[in-house]
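question for whoever is on the cluster today: can someone run the full assembly for these? two chains, 477 residues total. i dont have access anymore since they changed the login thing
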Amino acid sequence: MMNSSIFIDIKNLMAWFDTMKVLSGINLSIERNKVVAIIGPSGCGKSTFIRCLNRLHEEVRGARVKGKVFLEDRDIYDPSVDPVLIRRNIGMIFQKPNPFPGMSIYDNVALGLKLSGVRKRSLLDEKVEMSLKRAALWKEVKDNLNRPGTGLSGGQQQRLCIARALAIEPPVLLMDEPTSALDPISTSWIEELIQNLTDQVTVIIVTHNMQQASRVSDRTAFLLNGELVEYNKTSLFFTNPDDERSEAYITGRL
Amino acid sequence: MQTKFLDERLTQLKSLIASMGGCAEQMLKEAGLITFDKEVNREELYKLVQNREQEIDSLQIRLGKHCFRVLARQAPVARDLRLVLSIISINTALERMGDLSLNIAKKGKALKEDPLLEIPFEKLKEMFHQITSMIRGCLDAFINEDDRLAREVIIQDDRADQLKDGICVKLKECILANNDLVDTCIQLVSISEMLERLGDQATNIAEEVIFMETGRDVKHKKL
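^ ran it for u. tokens below:
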């Protein structure tokens, strides 16, 4: 029986690209409505790790996964689980904002809802407005919702992608270096947004920016060569890490 | 490259602490000479102590600015962060040590001797040695990043407190024996209290060394 405060429980997660093992038996428990930062040097398996949490990794030819990822009490790798539903329910934000080209701001946000079967215009309007508000974009776009999403600035596009992900009210939001292509002001918008989301969403964010991990997360996981070196409270991780390799990495001496 | 730059800055901060520490140690030694050595030119030595105190003050300002810049520009984390935070606290402690040694020198300069005061003087000398050893110990602990030595310094503080209490008891007896000694005895009590505070500052530095090395905050805790 899982500890009631644990929302995502990852057990002995391993991942491969063909014969190359990129994750070696990761065990990690994530509490509900917390922000977890995943850090580590390039190629350590951070992105693969979060792509395993919404079953996106297996979409790559030759890629495979072993282990269990419990979302509440259900293993998302159970054969009875439909990976498409998992991907729909676990939102993902990528490094580069990717609004759907040729679609308006409104349609970008409404698409996920329409695919989930929402047809009623008033409900769509309400959800689009709510999502854009939660993504802190509403004030900037409310008078021009028919503008193409791709016409927004980089920071606005990323917030649009967050609004799109939030529209279907996912319990988990995965973010893969969501601000690496953004300027400091847009970055601070997104960081503030992450903090505000935790009343309803559990956020797992991959970042190369250690200050960002330190600012936004409750816990930090440090991956090295596909292994989980340390998983600790962020306040401890950045002031007094348990593992020498963590210390060496965050102080730039690895 | 970034790390090398940070390492250089941290080494610079440490060497500024070493300079301040050297000054503070020297000041206490000179304050002791003024207090106990009949042969020295007290006025001349006192001027030297005053100059050193000014040097510590200017080092304090310089070090504070450097720490501020390192925090703002390098954003250190983990042990590097603890080191800078400890240096900020040690900087304050050393500046206070300079003030206390200057005050001891000032009071020591005006002391009058009397055969009745021989025992308190001897005890005060012992206290000087004790505090000098604590200051040297905490600075060595900082330079050598030695939290074990820092713990030894903290333990020594109890002995310094006992010595001060013992001095006060003896001085009380002297006052009862000869009322004319009241003024001198008050000066001696004041010196012993300042020495006690120097010991407290050495303890503070030792606690910072433990924090810097282990991440554990041992302030107001039994070791």
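summary bc i know u wont read the tokens: The first strand of chain A starts at residue 6 and ends at 17. The mean pLDDT of chain A is 94.
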